[in-house]
Amino acid sequence: MFIEFSLKEDEMYFIGSSEERSDIRINVPDLINDIHCIITTTSGTPDSEPKVYLTDASQYGTYLNMSLVGEGKSTIRPGYLTVKTTKREIASGSQSSVYLAYDKRRPSRQLACKVTNIRKEPFFGASRLGLYKRELEILKGNKHPNIISLVAAHKTQEHGFVFLPLYYGGDLQECQYSCNTMDEDLAMHFMQQLFAGLKYIHGKQIIHCDLKPGNVLLSERLEDKPRLIITDFGHAMNEADKPTTWPEDWGTPAYRAPEMVKLQEFSCKVDCWAAGIIFYQLLEGVHPFAVFEGKESLDSAILPAEIQFSSAVLESVSQKSRDLVSQLTAKDHCQRPQMRDVVSSDSLAEDASFLREQEWWFGEKKPSPPTQRLALEEGGVAWLKECRDPSHHDTVLTIKE
């Protein structure tokens, strides 16, 4: 049983089975006492974080993070983020807008706040609230250096707020535009990470469904070989819950696989196709169907055409890379390799240094100062209210309205 609730500063919350005395009622006979435990909160200051104390008032025992507190004893929950969201918009899409946010006590620790209006009209037949909840569930479980992870989340009647890591390197599309054709070694550096991230989510039975260079972030702009992070799970689906056929107008037309165009049954191999298109773009400097404009024209090109490399790429790029692009963009999805097969090959082994990397917001690694910070705008700070971090049980997010 999981119960999520918001906490306010300088309050006391009684948790137990008593209907009359409990602020948060959990009625489990022979396990939960009338008053099982008490949560007490205190105010924070600009120089210190607020505190949350848990007092064990039970006969059966209260556990915090699998450790027994002990009857009559109190313990403090560690880990807080006191977050301010600004009015500085750093990205926008068809469903959401993204704003700069930061830790009030450590302004150098910046985050991205994705704001979704969950009361708006349905998006291609799917409710905004349903899409928000599905994306949130996917983000909660992401713990991989090449996949965007959830820091915290909060929901009001009108909006859903998702707090995510903020990266400073732009996206893969900007990177490709800046260098036009990319050196094979650098392209392979990015693709190794892209493949590793896809292998991870596919292993969890998640299909991204909208993989494209604009949804792939880079950790730092000035690094020669930055870390790559797959983001935007707004169109993602779980294999078990996906529709029988591909929803019309779902995803980005230029990166849709043939089975998506034909609205047929689909699988995680739609992501493999998109990865092949991205690999081609990095090597050629242009999308394979760039000359076709409009959805209908694109669809007619995707179905019959075989992807061809230019003579320049044929001369400069290895046969192994060209073969991999061809395999990933096979028209018949049955002929495309699974990501676990791609990553397990000798030339595409997962980079151990990236897989070991952790993030500061989970308390597992001290952040190294990035080469660039976004300027904080002191005016026009939007406040939200306090809530618990649903993805990491040792972190309480404090946001004020």
In N-to-C order, the SSE pattern is EEEEEEEEEEHEEHHEEEEHHHHHHHEEE
Question: What amount of the residues lies in strands?
Answer: 15-25%
Number of domains: 3
Tally of separate helices: 10
Instruction: Compute the number of strand runs.
Output: 19
Give the terminus-to-terminus CA distance: 29 Å
- So, CATH architecture of the largest domain? Orthogonal Bundle
- At the first level of CATH, the class of the largest domain is Mainly Alpha
The gross shape turns out to be: elongated
Query: What's the assembly state of these chains?
Result: single chain
* Sheet/helix structural class: alpha+beta
Topology-level CATH name of the largest domain: Transferase(Phosphotransferase), domain 1
CATH-level-4 superfamily name of the largest domain: Transferase(Phosphotransferase) domain 1
Low-confidence stretches: 362-371, 377-401
Q: If you compute it from the alpha carbons, what radius of gyration comes out, rounded to the nearest whole angstrom?
A: 24 Å
Describe the largest sheet. 8 strands, mixed
Domain FHA: 13-69
Domain Protein kinase: 84-355
GO molecular function, one term: protein kinase activity
Protein name: Protein kinase domain-containing protein
